[in-house]
Structures are given as C-alpha cells and as structure tokens.
C-alpha cells in the first residue's frame, strides 16, 4: 500500500478520536447533576481512546518503517542489479578489447617478423651481390690472359738506284730524290688474313699521305702500280719503274695476288733497268 494512503487513514483516525474525546469530555449543563459513575465512565473512555490512538500511531510508524525498508531494499536491489549489469557489460567488453589488443600485438609481431625477414633477405642479397664481383675478379685474375693472335708486316719504299742516276732522271723530279734514297723507312703495320701486298701498301700510303697511283684490271682482278711519291715509270729511262720484294726476294706475280704472312717485309724499290740493278744490289749485300 502506498505511503500516502497510510498517512490519510492515520490522519482520519486521529481526527475521529479527537472529536470523540472532546465530545465525551463536554461539560454537563449546569442544571444536570453528574453522577460519580458517569465521571468514571468518561475517564475510562478517555483512557481507552488514548490507548487506541497510541496503538494506531505505533502501527503507522511500523508501516512507515517497513515501507521505507522495502523501498530501500528495492532501491538497493535495483542498484545492485544495475551495477551487476554494468559490471557484466564491462566484463563482456573487456575480452573484446583484450582480444583486439592481442590481435594488434600479433599483427605487430607478424609485421616485425616480416620486416626482419625482409631485412635479412635484403642483407643476404647485398652480401651475395658484394661477393659476386670478388668471385668474378678472382676468376678473371686466375684465368690466363689469352691475347688474340695478330699478324704484322713491315713496309718500306726506297729509290737507291736514282741516287746515282739523277742525270738520267727528269729534271722536275730530281728534287724528290733524297741523298739516302729512302722515301719510307721500315714501318710495321697490322695485317688481316687474306690481305695482299697491294692492300697493305695502299693503306700505308694513304695513312702517311704518300702519293700512290695504280691501275686496276677488273677482268683479272689485278692492280698495277704506276707511281709512288710522284715518281712514275719511264721517268728515268725505258726500263725504269717500280718493283716490289718480299723478304728480299723479287716477286714475279702481281702485287694484288701476293698474299702476306705474319712477319713479312715488303720493299718497294725503283728500278732503272727492269730490276736487274736491284738484283745486283742484293747480291752485293749478300
């Protein structure tokens, strides 16, 4: 029962008892004669009213106390239930937070492991790449140096026979002949497989800017040398002109047909007697 209802009932009881008390204790009219028994009955009724009022007051106080205690108990139970529910919610949330933290820690550990693995792989690759040049250099140093075999020959151009026959040489050509009769001293050059005397002589004269004139015969694939250093055939008589020697021997084949070997010595010499004067000079030097 609500607290307000108890208060209303108690108030009504108090009011009724008070009214009864005053009504019973009203003085008698002057003309009436109050007997002794009536006085005693009034006193007893007042005492009875007092006892009833005190008992009602005690009951009201007990009801109020029980109501307050029940309200406090219900409030405490509801508060405890609320606390338990909040505690339960917190306890339910905590595992998720913990699980999230554990997941984040695991992911962080995995990332650190992955990073360390990548770092180790990179360092290993760098070590391998650093080791490779050293291995390569060791292999290069240990491997024997193999030089490609190259062939060489020596070329010279002379006109010794004109030194003693300047009087027979054309006047406009005499200044071309030096006192020692050497136009090109021995010059070494590299040759390739299949090169001829004509090929090498043409290349050397082009490099040294020495005039070199020749005639090609495509039908026979041959070349005939007409002049070197502006000295031509028939400049010093009908039997004069250029001949060539390989290793001190006059060759009878055309210069474009004579193939060279490594170490050969080519000499172009101007002759005034169809090569006989050159042969005589060779014999004298022997």
Runs in which pLDDT lies below 50 for 5 or more consecutive residues are 26-43, 67-80, 93-108
Number of helices: 5
Q: Give the strand tally.
A: 8
Structural class: alpha+beta
Strand share of the residues? Answer: 15-25%
SSE pattern, N- to C-terminal: HHEHEHEEEEEEH
Distance between the terminal alpha carbons, to the nearest Å? 160 Å
Mean pLDDT across all residues, rounded? 73
Supply Rg: 73 Å
Dominant shape = rod-shaped
Approximate helicity band: 40-55%
What's the arrangement of strands in the largest beta sheet? 2-1-8-6-7
Brief descriptors of the model:
286 residues, alpha+beta, 5-stranded mixed β-sheet, 3-stranded antiparallel β-sheet, 5 helices, 17% strand, rod-shaped
Textual characterization of the structure:
The radius of gyration is 73 Å and the shape is rod-shaped. It has helices at 3-24, 36-142, 160-163, 197-207, 276-285; strands spanning 151-158, 182-191, 212-217, 222-228, 231-232, 241-246, 249-250, 265-271. It is of the alpha+beta class and 286 residues long. The longest helix has 107 residues, at 36-142. Helix content is 54%, strand content 17%. The strands form two sheets. A five-stranded mixed sheet has the order 2-1-8-6-7, sandwiched between helices. A three-stranded antiparallel sheet has the order 3-4-5, with helices on one face. α1 runs antiparallel to α2 (36-142).
């Amino acid at each position: 029962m609500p607290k307000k209802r108890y208060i209303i009932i108690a108030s009504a009881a108090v009011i009724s008892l008070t009214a009864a008390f005053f009504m019973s204790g009203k003085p008698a009219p002057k003309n009436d004669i109050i007997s002794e028994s009536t006085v005693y009955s009034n006193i007893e009724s007042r005492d009875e009213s007092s006892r009833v009022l005190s008992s009602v007051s005690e009951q009201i106080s007990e009801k109020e106390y029980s109501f307050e205690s029940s309200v406090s108990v219900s409030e405490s139970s509801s508060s405890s239930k609320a606390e338990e529910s909040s505690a339960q919610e917190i306890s339910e949330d905590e595992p998720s937070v913990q699980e999230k933290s554990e997941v984040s820690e695991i992911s962080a550990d995995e990332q650190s492991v992955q990073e360390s693995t990548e770092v180790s792989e990179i360092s290993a690759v760098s070590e391998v790449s650093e080791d490779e040049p050293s291995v390569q250099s060791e292999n290069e140093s240990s491997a024997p140096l193999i030089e490609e075999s190259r062939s060489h020959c020596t070329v010279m151009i002379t006109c010794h026979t004109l030194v003693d026959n300047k009087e027979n040489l054309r006047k406009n050509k005499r200044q071309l002949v030096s006192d020692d009769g050497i136009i090109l001293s021995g010059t070494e050059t590299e040759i390739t497989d299949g090169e001829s005397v004509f090929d090498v002589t043409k290349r050397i004269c082009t490099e040294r800017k020495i005039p070199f004139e020749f005639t090609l015969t495509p039908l026979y694939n041959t070349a005939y040398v007409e002049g070197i250093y502006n000295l031509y055939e028939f400049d010093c008589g009908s039997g004069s002109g250029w001949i060539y020697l390989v290793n001190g021997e006059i060759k009878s084949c055309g210069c474009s047909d004579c193939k060279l070997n490594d170490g050969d010595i080519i000499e172009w010499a101007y002759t005034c007697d169809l090569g006989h004067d050159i042969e005589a000079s060779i014999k004298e030097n022997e």
